[in-house]
Amino acid sequence: MLEVPHVQVSHTRESFSKFLQPVSLREARVIARMSHLCNLAYRVGDIEPSNLLHTHGLEFMTSSLVKKEEALAKEQASSVSSNESEESDGGSPRIGQRFSISPASAYSVASAVASYLHSQTTSLLRHRKKRFGAVNGDGQEKEAADYESSEMATLIASSPVTAVVAAKEGTKDAVAKDLQSLHNCPCEWYCCDDRKTSTLHFVIQGSESLASWQANLLFEPTHFEDSSLGVFVHRGIYEAAKGLYEQLLPCVLEHLRLHGDQARLCFTGHSLGGSLATLVFLMLRIRGVVQREALLPVLTFGSPCILCGGDYLLDKLGLPKDHIRSVMLHRDIVPRTFACNYPDHVAEILKRLNGNFRDHPCLNNQKLLYAPMGQFILLQPSEDVAPPHPLLPPGLGLYVMRHPREGNCSSKVEFRAAQRAFLNSPHPLEILSDPGAYGSDGAICRDHDPRSYMKCITGAVRQEAKRSRRLKRQQRRGLWWPLITAELSSMFRDGGGGGGGGQDRTFLVPGTTTAGRGAVVLSGSSAPGPSVVAAERFYAGVVRGIHEHRRQGQVVLLFFFSVKLALMQGFAAFFAWV
């Protein structure tokens, strides 16, 4: 079965919590490191190799900019030798001019599409409220839902977003060919090497150019690699991945040649870059270029779902699901775009616009374009950054989604329903209908910006590190107190021997026993010597100080007490000898 059966389930924060497990500190630090590398991918030309080596222990190897400069030099040399006069007249365009695209142009395209969607979705919701008002009965609910679906279908049919998939096949082929070109690669990238572990890291940038928007908007399904696999993929991103694969392959082969069986490859990326990283990772394995052991898990940040049958493909390749790990901010619209629920009216419109959607199994059976794949890691920022998600625990946190009873078919269905519930809460249309979602300070940019990912993940790591240190202190305290009390008991008995006979006395001082917090019982002579009395007074004072200043200096006080205790034992031995 290509995908698990679709079951719609409503979740609350309590019912959803069973699928969440806090990410360990070690794992969170790896994620934080990768998020920092992805943030650097948006300024590849400004990367300082020395800083990269000092901060992450990684040696900068090459980048897409270096490859383009090499291609430019080769073309210029060829042009000079073949037609020097034409080059001097400026008749032939330079490669740099073909791939240099203004970021402002890319943002204007995105803004135009977003503004159009905002106006349409706002109109849709306003008309719905005006026509139906408050929904009271089941019949009105169904009528309202049907009306909203038909309005959404009209939106899809008339939107410029569908202009690419509705174009003629020749136009789409030209776009696909252009995406595979080195000069029009939609995303920049760089690679760096970890000499200690023989790991080559490929870091791929997200949407930052007009070519990247071409890739995003050509979202019709096509077969991934071999049609016998039965897996469908987002065509635009797949075409871009083919071109990127050819660029990265020489680096991969050289790394395998140098390190042999010890070679490891790691792919990561933000947004579109994460999707490209996933496809290149799978292509290397399907084409037999790299053995399974050499491929480390892919880690993506805010990347859209782009495969129909992704989990099925991982099983077929013998890869665990956590080999594709998707980190997403709680309200990021991009991971939801192709994996949210598509009403029947919208599906029909898409099938009319493009015949490839008619036999698309995910659209026909799952009511979505592309299904979730691999493992989800959910990131909840603090409440001062963004409103909390209704299904996640309040406050800053990093959680991995897992079913408590993985393995059987029913658990897969239940788990996929939980993933779908998260991806539809909020639905992309709800996000687009909010006027505050747009602009550089809007919710869409805030929840998808790579800097937001890096900042929130870093905060989660610091929070978990503090919690871990606090737990270790408590564990150390539980081990130290019995040792301290045993030493004091021995010292009291030894120190009281020179004071004459007498009955034993018991000292009760506040402390921590092996069974928990309470009184520590110290036995000694009823006639202790001066050193023992001083030790008792000092110990009682230290314990009071520890309880009064527990949060300010427990470790310092315990160290100070240990030194004093050693000195007092020396004095006690000296007095006993005298």
Brief write-up:
By secondary structure, the protein is α/β, with parallel strands linked by helices. The protein has helices at 13-16, 25-40, 49-56, 64-82, 84-88, 95-99, 103-132, 138-158, 169-179, 210-217, 235-259, 272-286, 310-316, 344-353, 361-366, 409-423, 428-432, 443-448, 450-495, 530-548, 550-577, and strands spanning 20-22, 59-63, 189-194, 199-204, 221-223, 232-234, 264-270, 298-301, 307-308, 324-329, 375-380, 397-401, 504-513, 516-525. The chain has three domains: 13-81 and 172-448, Rossmann fold, CATH 3.40.50; 104-162; 473-577, no CATH class.
Q: What distinguishing features does this structure have?
A:
Rossmann fold, 3 domains, 14 strands, three-stranded antiparallel beta sheet, 13% strand, AB_hydrolase_fold, 578 residues, 21 helices
Task: Provide a descriptive summary of the structure in words.
- It is a single chain.
- The protein is α/β, with parallel strands linked by helices.
- It folds into three domains: 13-81 and 172-448, Rossmann fold (3-Layer(aba) Sandwich), CATH 3.40.50.1820; 104-162; 473-577, no CATH class.
- The protein is built from 21 helices and 14 strands.
- The chain has helices at 13-16, 25-40, 49-56, 64-82, 84-88, 95-99, 103-132, 138-158, 169-179, 210-217, 235-259, 272-286, 310-316, 344-353, 361-366, 409-423, 428-432, 443-448, 450-495, 530-548, 550-577, and strands spanning 20-22, 59-63, 189-194, 199-204, 221-223, 232-234, 264-270, 298-301, 307-308, 324-329, 375-380, 397-401, 504-513, 516-525.
- It has a nine-stranded mixed beta sheet with strand order 1-12-11-10-8-7-4-3-2, sandwiched between helices. A three-stranded antiparallel beta sheet has the order 5-6-9.
- Strand 7 (264-270), helix 12 (272-286) and strand 8 (298-301) form a beta-alpha-beta unit.
- The longest helix has 46 residues, at 450-495.
- It starts with 12 loop residues before the first helix and ends with a helix.
- The model is unreliable at 91-118, 127-145 and 497-528 (pLDDT under 50).
